[in-house]
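3-hydroxyacyl-CoA dehydrogenase NAD-binding domain-containing protein structure dump, as promised
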Amino acid sequence: MTAEYKVLGEIAVITMTNPPVNGLGFSTRVGITDGLSKANNDPAVKAIVITGAGKAFSGGADIKEFGTSKALQEPNLLSVILALEASPKPIVAAIHSVVMGGGLELALGCHYRVVAPGTSVALPEVKLGLLPGAGGTQRLPRVLGVETALNMIVSGEPVKSELLASAPGQKLFDKLAASAESLFDEAVEFAKSVAGKSPAELPLVRNLPCKHPQGDAYFQFAKNMVTGMSKNYPAPLKCLEAVRAATTMKFNDGMAEERRLFTQLMLSPESSALRHLFMAERAASKIPDVAEDTPQRAIKSVGVIGAGTMGGGISMNFLNAGIPVKILEMKQEALDRGVATIKKNYEAQVKKGKLKQDKYDQRMALLSTTLSYDDLKDCDLIIEAVFEELGVKEAVFKELDRVAKPGAILASNTSTLDVDKIAAFTKRPQDVVGMHFFSPANVMKLLEVVRGKETAKDVLATVMAIGKKIKKTSVVSGVCDGFIGNRMIEQYSRQAGFLLDEGATPQQVDKAIEKFGFAMGPFRMGDLAGNDIGWAIRKRRATERADMKYSRTADKLCELGRFGQKTGAGWYDYQAGKRDAIPSQVVLDLIEQHRKDEGITPRKISDEEIVQRLVYALVNEGAHILEDGIASKAGDIDMVYLTGYGFPIFRGGPMHYASQAGLYNVAETMRRFAKNPRDDGKFWEPAALIQKLVAEGKSFS
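structure tokens r here:
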């Protein structure tokens, strides 16, 4: 059992011991109820204290039990809370550090609560597309008032204990301890002070009244607010319904309504997607053949080569984390421009109140610059962010091989190039790794960590850890053209081009996929990134992969110099100083002329076909990536697309979405697309992995 029991004089102490956050797994639940039974059957025990060991009282459900039968195995959390309420002896919760989700619901089932200052208090279930399912929506409004409780439940955000403890009329906490260190002793003393109370005198949260003075009018106002903030996410409105039930129903009826709504959400695709995201994000940090206790190299200083948009953004990540950065450029003017941009970005944050002046000063003090490779000799990690051309990378890495100290990690920010070839430019390929940041690098969460065939395991472990320190979602990719993200997006973009050939317009394609939930359609995305980038890749493909077909519309667009927002014209027209995409007659005429030149009769294309062709193109290529061992698990691919490419979070990523749609249905749709004369048919043959999973009745998850 992951709960300890001991007796201190007349006080029994039950301590949850399930690190890291004392999740309320089956073993912990059994330990609590067993301890409770021992205490109530021991005449010498007059009161009970329940607390958590380590760095949390309890963070709620045990994530290791998500989706398993153990999560509901008796005693489930509802049963544990009922047992606490039914105890004839007073129970005091000694709360510290973190009390969230089921942990807070557990504490609400106790008779009394003593809390340490600085404790984070939350019911974050809404972030998993759920609502608190063990009485949180019924009990929290009774101790904090309807409005405060509803705000906490709908947002899922933590609130500090001292703020809640100071609220007028609150009954959540009976005492705020002087400090975290004195909490346990104060809780024991509090337990002694209530030890003589009879069962009838013990207070239960369930017996407190729950009303809002404005009643229906308040909840209508709240519904309007929540509706406007929760597009595509049903959980916030269900939370509101459950809290409203607390004000209009008897307690047990409200509990039944909470359970009904919880079950609805548990079965919803949105919650499935959010729970998948929660698990996939944690699983992404685990590399199958790299043990979690692999020793890491110390990263106390970072060198960045290139002061442009990428180099500056990359530098800011490390400055934000308190790590000194030295930027190298070939010319002083380029260095000055880069530093000025970093300053401008930070000053904008200061102006908006998002960054304090002293923090800004600290970060800028960590930044230094140089025009000489020799000045990078003491850096522990050096990241190049230079032009995406193999010859340029070769020159950089030969210099790094010359100056970098033994054991320094040499990283490339390449988005498509062969990391093994780059590593071969050095005499230390074991120290070379890809660190592909996404633009703007100081904002985007994704970091593709590209593992070369000789990249050392401790290098991988170190880079994954440093990714976490700079608050990135790091995903490991093997070496191939485009790695995970860009290899897949190429197939997505190819299909977008074919859709234009066949009868769609750029705005129809963009609107269809944006309605599906993407942050931006393929043509708006191209205009933002620069259409010349894709043009350069297609030129390279013409010699490397002559068999790969593309629509010629994108090349013809680039031949007109319409590279996107930076030139004021791309797939759309743009007005100076604005980013609004305006449909372009020039582009529509270009597409129409292209169809005539190719002898294509345009047809009406549905939004459904647009979405399926774009998303399933990602899915099929993602399956090939899994087959090739470029990604180790489908969840990693989903994390890449959720954090780096604007795939809708409420759909859980392309691989999860395909599993939800049913891989049999996906495969049959692909075979239908394979008959399209614009494609050679080879791409739409379902990947062998998809066919295997269909045959076995399985999914990617």
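The two ends are 30 Å apart (CA to CA).
lmk if u need the other ones
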